[in-house]
Write a structure and sequence with these properties.
By secondary structure, the chain is mostly helical. Helices cover 75% and strands 0% of the residues. It is built from 9 helices and no strands. The radius of gyration is 17 Å and the shape is globular. The model has no long low-confidence stretch (mean pLDDT 88).
Length: 182
């Protein structure tokens, strides 16, 4: 986006950084929150990871070189922070990452911040059974409606590999849902 360039310049200028950062937060907070929430599933955890993401963005904005879009760079940071958070939590609880994700998905029904119906809960449980990369690709494509080219930039993966991941994720989700609804 060409409208990112002035914002990036303001973010990288010490005199305009604070004001520009408030603008950045206002523009991207909700999108990044929901991206993170799809990974960590729990509202409070998503808030914590979002805060860490913005801290990391603020500390590293000088290193942003414009080779990718600003939002792609921020999504990559948010993805990495969320995955690190989930892996750390799983390690603290001494469980496998996939088991931890399934445990989180099973608590969605009692989460006051989750407003999904029964099929949405089944979908989230199905997503939780996927390998981490497939979860990311599925969430970005299905929920966030990002194009493969955008996901490729964020995850630094080829479009072909992403299409394969999405295809396999959809098949696994379909299989899971069929077993849960029959």
């Amino acid at each position: 986006m060409t409208d990112e360039i002035p914002l990036v310049k303001q973010l990288q200028n010490s005199k305009t950084r604070d004001k520009a950062f408030h603008i950045l937060i206002a523009q991207y907070k909700e999108r990044l929150y929901w991206h993170i929430r799809k990974i960590v599933l729990v509202h409070d955890d998503a808030d914590d990871v979002l805060q860490n993401t913005f801290v990391k963005i603020f500390k590293n904005i000088e290193k942003f070189n414009g080779q990718s879009k600003l939002y792609s760079w921020m999504y990559r940071i948010a993805s990495n922070e969320a995955i690190t958070f989930i892996n750390k939590r799983a390690k603290e609880k001494k469980v496998d990452i996939s088991d931890y994700h399934e445990q989180l998905a099973s608590t969605l029904e009692s989460d006051v911040y989750f407003s999904g119906d029964e099929i949405q809960i089944i979908l989230q449980k199905a997503i939780a059974t996927l390998p981490q990369k497939q979860q990311l690709v599925f969430n970005m494509k299905y929920f966030e409606e990002l194009k493969y080219s955008q996901i490729s930039e964020i995850l630094e993966t080829s479009v072909g590999a992403l299409k394969a991941s999405y295809f396999h994720a959809v098949k696994k989700i379909e299989k899971y849902i069929k077993t849960q609804t029959n």
